Amino acid sequence: MKIHRRIGALRKMKCFPCQFSNTIKSAQFNTSALMSVSVFEQADIISTVEFNHSGELLATGDKGGRVVIFQQEQENKTQSHSRGEYNVYSTFQSHEPEFDYLKSLEIEEKINKIRWLPQKNAAQFLLSTNDKTIKLWKISERDKRPEGYNLKEEDGRYRDPTTVTTLRVPVFRPMDLMVEASPRRIFANAHTYHINSISINSDYETYLSADDLRINLWHLEITDRSFNIVDIKPANMEELTEVITAAEFHPNSCNTFVYSSSKGTIRLCDMRASALCDRHSKLFEEPEDPSNRSFFSEIISSISDVKFSHSGRYMMTRDYLSVKIWDLNMENRPVETYQVHEYLRSKLCSLYENDCIFDKFECCWNGSDSIVMTGSYNNFFRMFDRNTKRDITLEASRENNKPRTVLKPRKVCASGKRKKDEISVDSLDFNKKILHTAWHPKENIIAVATTNNLYIFQDKMN
Amino acid sequence: MFMRGLKRKCFDGEEDIEETLAGIKAIPSYNLQRQSLLDMSLVKLQLCHMLVEPNLCRSVLIANTVRQIQEEMTQDGTWQMINMQNTGQASVDRLVSTDILCRSSREQAEGKHVPGYSTFSKDFEGDQAQDSSETMSTASSVQALRNLQSNVWEMENSQENKGNFQKSLDQIFETLENKSPNSVEDLFSEVDNSYYDLDTMLTGMMSNTKMGHCDGLEPFPSPTTTTSSSNCKSDLNELDHIVEILVES
């Protein structure tokens, strides 16, 4: 019942294309700057956001174990300056809270990750995972139904056989579109620790799931078996100093994957080398900057997300203060580094105290790998243009909800005299964090999740 | 976001250092910072213990930080700086912490206390305890950390909390026997073992949320501790938030 009420609320919100002023265009970006905004209220905290391969569908997972899928409307030919809006397409409860009786621990239903499978037929498939269990969901449409049965009335009651005098062939008649989600596979009981990543292989047959200490390889058809391909659990748990934080398959090479660690290293593994890929093929690590050394150095070097570029040549990692782009051919340092919120470096102690230093920010590439995006605090999110080396800070907030709202670039003043329209570091709201962002695979449409809301911004079409 | 902290009380150790280092002001405050960081980290680890599902990555990072501080402190030979607090502050009202904390320490203790830096019970108060607790404090601190760690990790795997604590407590006692008192006595001449009181540290955690500055200000607990919900990202607050949402919907 909770879900239906929420769907009702969601439908009320509509997408408003906004005119974006020229200030943005001239300021930072190559692409022009109209952003249109949709805001969807969600009762629970959004925990993951993911576009499908065509970009037509956008899936979000939340802390309550629900998955909400938005669908882009077909382009409106009359309104040439806006692309289709996103509306709610389907909502379903993916995971339920569970209780592990052996350990007396609750298993959260929060959806940690969603990954779409490429579309092979009329139905859509996605993988969603909580801390322990991965599920393959099939989302299918039904817009016709058979009518004209001989033995049944339209409402399902059986007819008295003696009243049947003629025979007819049932025909399909159109009906209101119904979107159904059904779980097709449940991949369970393979992880002792909390699953942080899932990644579908480019062979579209296998996928990996990674928890804090192990990575397993699954076949999409087989649920009762998985292969352990990485295991960094020490024999003596007292010696544990490093955990796996994220893992991803290479977009083109089906034998290659990477995993990142809490010590700021990324290991690239080749599954052809051996069954157990504990020995990496490549180790990506940047030497520490001695001038920036502090007790928090290790914590802020912990990588919270790793993403391959669409081309497969680069990968991007997100640590607490920066985004780094690595060339797969060069292991000793990243080729590009972008500071997300360097002004927080002097506040690390306080951020450690209130646990914000452990926040796991994600990052994403745009379709052409020219821009990368990541979130920050105070509902800010940042974009970095790799070609022009320009960057921009934007805010996802209700003020930008109205139509024709100008999305203004924001600036944080680190120290000294605060200029007009700048925000000082001390007035940032650290409870408003943008951890999850996604970029449409083909167009300049982005989805940004604040704690409770999902914002969809679009680029202006000239 | 950043709240004022309590002003730190003066203590002998600090003056000594200042004298010996010819009044270089930076160093005492660095030590204080480091110490407060150590306190905070230990408390965070202890709290991990008591929460239902400790986040392994966070625990590992905090434990690594603690280890790093300890190593540095051992190298510096600054264990004598540990004397953080006058005995006067160890008042009873500071023992007032949350139910969970009291309950857990009682559960685990059965007359004794949790491992790590925790103190021993009344049996060990007084002068006779000085030696043993001093020894325990340094020599087994790394050991205790490992015990704590293993407890935290093993929380994930087994429900044998009491067994684990007992085990690590045994290990601490073992270490006590093995270590020769002379070597560490000097280091601990000024240690105030009430510092390692679990409850003290834990209430310190609660009041820490009020303090944003780590620039040498003493994060020790004040009797009026309130968790500032806008600052403290504790699981308790998260739980409240979720309950709020459920109730509203």
Automatic annotation (TrEMBL), chain A:
<dbReference type="InterPro" id="IPR000009">
    <property type="entry name" value="PP2A_PR55"/>
</dbReference>
<dbReference type="GO" id="GO:0019888">
    <property type="term" value="F:protein phosphatase regulator activity"/>
</dbReference>
<dbReference type="InterPro" id="IPR001680">
    <property type="entry name" value="WD40_rpt"/>
</dbReference>
<dbReference type="InterPro" id="IPR015943">
    <property type="entry name" value="WD40/YVTN_repeat-like_dom_sf"/>
</dbReference>
<keyword id="KW-0853">WD repeat</keyword>
<dbReference type="InterPro" id="IPR036322">
    <property type="entry name" value="WD40_repeat_dom_sf"/>
</dbReference>
<comment type="similarity">
    <text>Belongs to the phosphatase 2A regulatory subunit B family.</text>
</comment>
<protein>
    <recommendedName>
        <fullName>Serine/threonine-protein phosphatase 2A 55 kDa regulatory subunit B</fullName>
    </recommendedName>
</protein>
<dbReference type="GO" id="GO:0000159">
    <property type="term" value="C:protein phosphatase type 2A complex"/>
</dbReference>
<dbReference type="InterPro" id="IPR018067">
    <property type="entry name" value="PP2A_PR55_CS"/>
</dbReference>
<keyword id="KW-0677">Repeat</keyword>
TrEMBL record, chain B:
<dbReference type="InterPro" id="IPR009263">
    <property type="entry name" value="SERTA_dom"/>
</dbReference>
<dbReference type="InterPro" id="IPR052262">
    <property type="entry name" value="E2F-SERTA_domain_protein"/>
</dbReference>
<feature type="domain" description="SERTA">
    <location>
        <begin position="30"/>
        <end position="77"/>
    </location>
</feature>
<protein>
    <recommendedName>
        <fullName>SERTA domain-containing protein</fullName>
    </recommendedName>
</protein>
<dbReference type="Pfam" id="PF06031">
    <property type="entry name" value="SERTA"/>
</dbReference>
<feature type="compositionally biased region" description="Polar residues">
    <location>
        <begin position="129"/>
        <end position="140"/>
    </location>
</feature>
<feature type="region of interest" description="Disordered">
    <location>
        <begin position="112"/>
        <end position="140"/>
    </location>
</feature>
